[in-house]
Structures are given as C-alpha cells and as structure tokens.
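User: Hey, quick favor. My workstation is busy. Could you predict this chain's structure for me?
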Amino acid sequence: MTTLATNKWEQEIIHGERFRFGQNWKDFIGDKNGALQLDVACECLANSLFRGGIDTLRDISFLDIGCGSGLHSAAAIKLGAKEVIAIDYDQDSVECTKTLLKQLFGDTSRWQTKQFSILDSDSLQVLGQHDIVYSWGVLHHTGDLDTAIKNAAGLVKPNGYLFISLYYPTFLDFFWKREKRFYSKASKYMQRLIRSAWILKTRLSFLAKRRSFSKMVSEYREARGMDYFIDVHDWLGGYPYEPISESACIDKLEALGFTRVYSESLGSRLSLSSACNEFIFRKSPEAAQ
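Assistant: No problem, here it is.
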C-alpha cells in the first residue's frame, strides 16, 4: 500500500534530495552477505551493550531507527530482545529489513518493520517508548539533525538507553555536502566513475604507506560485518549530510535529561573524510516525557 511517507520519499529521490540508501542495502543482502555477517553484527552489538553496562537484552524492547539492511535488528533478536521495532524513512530499507528478518527468524510477533520518518514529530506516539533506542550512523542523514536527536530521545523510556553514532565535522564538510548531493543526482555511470576514482585514491594511499589494500577489504568485512565497496557507495552518496561535534551532541542530550554513559571520538577536524563518533546515553527517571 502506498503511503504519504512513501510518496514524499519517492519525490525526494527523484529530485536528488536524498540518496537511495536502501537500494545499496538490497544489493548487500541480495548477495546473502547479511545472513553470513549476522555473527559479526551480534558481536559488535554485544560489545556496545557491554560498554553501556547492559548484560542482556532479555525482557528488553529495542527500537532500531534507520534500520538499513536490518542487521542490527537481527542481532538484537538473536541476542534475546523481547521486542524489536525496525523503522526507516527509506522504503527500500524497510523491505530489505523485512526480507532479512523473515529469512532468519520467520514471521514472529517479536519483530515488526515500519516506514517512518523520525522527523515526523506529530506521529511519534505510534512508536511508544523503549528500553533501548538504537540509531547507528543514521540521524545525520535526515536533513534536520536537531529534530532527529530530540525525537529519538523522546522514544526512550525513563532509565532507558540511547545508542547513537554520528559523523564528526571535518574541514571539508562544505565539499562533501556538495559532492554527496551531486552524486545522489548523478547517473549510474557517473557514480561508477566517482567510486572508481575514490577507490584508486585509497589504493594509492595504501601503496604509499606500504599497507595491503586487499587485507584491509577482508578485515573490513570481518570487523564490521560490512562490505568495503558497498560502504564506499554509501559514503559518497550519503545525502543529506549533517555532522556534529562530540561536545555539541553531549550538550544536546544532557539538556534533554540524559547522562553520557560512554563516548568515543574516532576522528579529527583535519580528516579528509568523516567517520562516526559513538555515544551511549541513559535517560534519567525525571526526564520530561
């Protein structure tokens, strides 16, 4: 059934105002990599839970904002979450997640998928509140990071946790915003040319440093449960794009009644391209609902 959200998303895709993230994920899952990398995703999620002081997902409700491929939702289910709700604004991502979860777990009441924009403040109540709200590398692609953070925070139960990772600012942000918008509008042929140039740059960089490019690609999959070449497409086309500094993110969440449990700053403003800072926040019992 066609929805208003689907119509709006399709129009933004047509006009080049949004990268088609979900199509990228479909290519990834379509090669059966998703199922093959579930154990890696489980290990990554378990490590994140450990950093937050969470021993188990049993009796835990888990909301995955920007579910993408569905791997994080699948990991939460496998680790024992009692309920997983996977949402994404990108209809392709919703379909991708639904396909993966059905493939791995069959039809069960433990999970559901929904096309939903985290910027839709008027409809947040339909999602309820959850013990863990998880949004990994997503909110900076909404086009309104401030509202996205605020709305995600509102979906956390008192004493619950918010797990987020967000791009840090670099001195080339002005360039990346323009490049990503151009790439999102470009033909598939032009996109391939840009990807080839980026990968060649990376190969030459590794050669100059006497490092193995092929080893990096192999370890990339093993460490992250992802494919390097899929991620290149995602990085070059990830529009909208809105980075935030570590201190600004912490200030925003503290103002909303959260306490930082863990954070890791992985980058520098002098970096050529951005990566994500990682955060875990806990909501105080007194925080406004």
